């Protein structure tokens, strides 16, 4: 593979030639810097000494070359050079030009620190030998996402050398690769790795922005995640370490997905830092009212105005860089609804940027996952992104939590559950009431937990959040968690409660990993990690958020269940349909679904909504194109009373082989075969999976 993959021009919608080749382009004898600022009156290149980053050794003015672009070609620009820009322009509402401010050039591939809070852009050559390693290109129906934090994954791993703890190199260490492959995931979705900073208010409390949703620059990898050796060698070495991580994970067949934050930047609200875009052209890069007040639909102080071509192109060019130069396999777009807001600040799925991301040949092979909401008016858009997008499905999360947790809590107090099984069944089968027939079940990224919220273990152990350590008097974090502590808040020695919690976790994991759609597992949930009830641990860079790799036997049992469930998902194509089946039609790569009650009879309309009947048998039969025919039966029982379930009589089925049960503390090795019409005893709140033969 060449050092930099060939990248075609962006799609016509954002292809303004004057916006091509922004940033630094190296050539013989120097380099060319191109910066866009539609309102600037002057732009100046400032070059620093290689070792004293506060010593300016030269400056050169940029020349306006049309279309808002300023350019200079100079021998001062060479690999390794530290530089900044100064931009001046008119004063007035919406403009915040200051000729004295040293600014990060937005297309910088490297950053270095100058003084306490100033930053210097760094010219990076970017050469790297990929050695013929290519992207794994895992099919969407076989994709299993594993959401994790670069530092948190390996900071405490005993088999990763201490020098690699919490680093890009540590993530690619054989011990981590072995864990990921052994678990059965295919794609690591990393919390933000674009260069980011901690907000001043957190620093005042002695806390840190651990998650990284406070982007400083869209092209530079976060240097603190690199090894000491790479950081001391400089930004070029940091980038090489990052690419080396990607290469090693690709060699193992694992994809790398980046959680990207293009909706806002670390410049916060007016009065916040002037580090880059605010000083270059505030009016063009951030959404504002006529008087210059920010329109904040992100809850982070500012919102990038992607209705402006230069801002949208900055996002698109960043994606193209990571997907091709760095060989990233996909992106999860934080608060993606913000990216799809037009000049009137309303969301539209036909937004030029959203369409360009889909249409760009340079992004054709990457996975595109939207967090389909923001906090602005009309910000909840689950199901409304176009064909080609996959979406975090919060409706799935909420319904599954309700079914196994808050409904059960309600039933203990009211003697009956509040709802029947119908809504849960819809989510299990791919959320066809949320995603169109054309988009199919793979439009849904199913999740029960994520970085934001309770861990799986805390979800079954706490009724309320415990966020006092965040310094906000427990006001931050979600108040509605749909969790259930099963009789005691937090830690307990009551074995009855602990056993019920373990089964609840197995039910949640079983639902997640056996549902139609793309499952996303949160790192640490395979071992039932706890954050002691903190459901918003974004500001804790500590053992609270770093994964522990020392586990009790019951945690190893949970891990074994996840391994088993993911193996069963791989082996049974009926569990991972690509399309929704159509009534009375043969749809290739779909699953034809049938629903039976506990008596083995077809589910009646009344049974779907009756809260006193929360038992169903879900049968899915594949319509294969590239795999053998497959049919599964999944029993679901959603109240705490045990029940006898009669296996249905289905044409062509001679028996049902037991594959997995959530009632087992350890996944069973036996594969008992049961005849149609046989009775299966299900304990309260449990699941049982069979393969039909």
UniProtKB/TrEMBL annotation:
Keywords: Glycosidase, Hydrolase. Gene3D superfamilies: Glycosidases, Golgi alpha-mannosidase II, Immunoglobulins. The keyword Cytoplasm does not apply. GO terms for molecular function: amylo-alpha-1,6-glucosidase activity. SMART domains: Aamy. Residues 121-569 form the Glycosyl hydrolase family 13 catalytic domain. Pfam families: CBM_48. GO terms for biological process: glycogen catabolic process. Its EC number is 3.2.1.-. Belongs to the glycosyl hydrolase 13 family. This is Glycogen debranching enzyme. It comes from Microbacterium terrae. The lineage of its organism: Bacteria, Bacillati, Actinomycetota, Actinomycetes, Micrococcales. The gene is glgX_1.
């Amino acid at each position: 593979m060449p050092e930099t993959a060939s990248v075609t021009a962006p799609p016509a919608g954002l292809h303004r030639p004057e916006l091509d080749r922004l940033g630094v382009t190296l050539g013989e004898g120097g380099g060319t810097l191109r910066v866009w600022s539609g309102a600037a009156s002057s732009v100046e290149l400032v070059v620093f000494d290689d070792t004293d980053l506060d010593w300016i050794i030269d400056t050169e003015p940029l020349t306006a070359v049309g279309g808002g672009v300023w350019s200079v070609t100079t021998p001062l620009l060479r690999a390794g050079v530290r530089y900044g820009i100064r931009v001046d322009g008119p004063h007035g509402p919406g403009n915040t030009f200051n000729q004295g401010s040293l600014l990060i050039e937005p297309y910088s591939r490297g950053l270095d620190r100058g003084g306490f809070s100033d930053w210097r852009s760094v010219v990076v050559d970017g050469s790297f030998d990929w050695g013929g390693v290519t992207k794994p290109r895992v099919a969407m129906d076989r994709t299993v996402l594993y959401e994790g934090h670069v530092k948190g994954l390996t900071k405490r791993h005993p088999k990763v050398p201490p020098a690699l703890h919490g680093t890009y190199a540590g993530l690619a260490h054989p011990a981590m690769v072995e864990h990921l492959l052994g678990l059965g995931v295919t794609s690591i979705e990393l919390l933000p790795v674009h260069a980011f900073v901690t907000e001043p208010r957190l620093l005042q409390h002695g806390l840190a922005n651990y998650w990284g949703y406070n982007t400083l620059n869209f092209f530079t990898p976060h240097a603190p995640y690199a090894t000491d050796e790479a950081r001391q060698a400089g930004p070029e070495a940091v980038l090489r370490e990052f690419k080396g991580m990607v290469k090693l994970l690709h060699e193992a067949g694992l994809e790398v997905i980046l959680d990207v934050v293009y909706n806002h930047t670390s410049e916060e609200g007016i009065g916040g830092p002037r580090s880059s875009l605010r000083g270059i052209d505030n009016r063009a890069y951030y959404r504002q009212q006529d008087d210059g007040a920010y329109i904040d639909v992100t809850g982070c102080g500012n919102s990038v105005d992607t209705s402006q071509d230069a801002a949208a192109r900055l996002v698109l060019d960043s994606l193209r860089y990571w997907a091709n130069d760095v060989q990233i396999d996909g992106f999860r777009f934080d608060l993606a609804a913000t990216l799809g807001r037009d000049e009137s600040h309303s969301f539209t799925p036909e937004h030029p940027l959203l369409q360009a991301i889909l249409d760009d040949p340079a992004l054709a092979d990457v996975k595109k996952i939207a967090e389909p909401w923001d906090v602005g008016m009309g910000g909840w858009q689950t199901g409304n992104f176009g064909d080609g997008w996959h979406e975090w499905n919060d409706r799935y999360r909420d319904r599954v939590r309700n079914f196994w947790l808050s409904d059960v809590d309600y039933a203990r107090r009211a003697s009956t559950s509040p709802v029947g099984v119908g809504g849960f069944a819809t989510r299990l089968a791919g959320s066809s009431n949320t995603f169109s027939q054309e988009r199919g079940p793979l439009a849904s990224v199913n999740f029960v937990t994520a970085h934001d919220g309770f861990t799986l273990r805390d979800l079954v152990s706490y009724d309320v959040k415990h966020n006092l350590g965040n310094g906000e008097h427990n006001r931050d974090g979600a108040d509605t968690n749909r969790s259930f502590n099963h009789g005691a808040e937090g830690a307990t020695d009551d074995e009855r409660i602990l056993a019920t919690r373990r089964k609840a976790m197995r039910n949640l994991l079983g639902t997640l990993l056996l549902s139609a759609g793309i499952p996303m597992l949160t790192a640490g949930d395979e071992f039932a990690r706890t954050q002691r009830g903190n459901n918003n641990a974004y500001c804790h860079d500590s053992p609270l958020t770093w994964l522990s790799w020392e586990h009790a036997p019951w945690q190893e049992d949970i891990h074994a269940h996840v391994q088993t469930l993911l193996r069963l998902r791989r082996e049974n194509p009926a569990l991972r349909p690509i399309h929704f089946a159509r009534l009375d039609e043969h749809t290739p790569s779909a699953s034809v679904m049938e629903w039976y009650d506990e008596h083995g009879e077809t589910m009646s309309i009344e049974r779907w909504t009756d809260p006193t009947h929360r038992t169903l048998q879900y049968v899915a039969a594949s319509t294969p194109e590239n795999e053998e025919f497959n049919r599964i039966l999944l029993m679901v029982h959603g109240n705490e009373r045990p029940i006898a379930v009669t296996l249905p009589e289905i044409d062509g089925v001679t028996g049902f082989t037991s594959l997995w049960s959530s009632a087992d503390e350890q996944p069973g090795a036996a594969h008992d075969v049961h005849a149609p019409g046989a009775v299966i005893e299900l304990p309260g709140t449990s699941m049982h999976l069979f393969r039909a033969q």
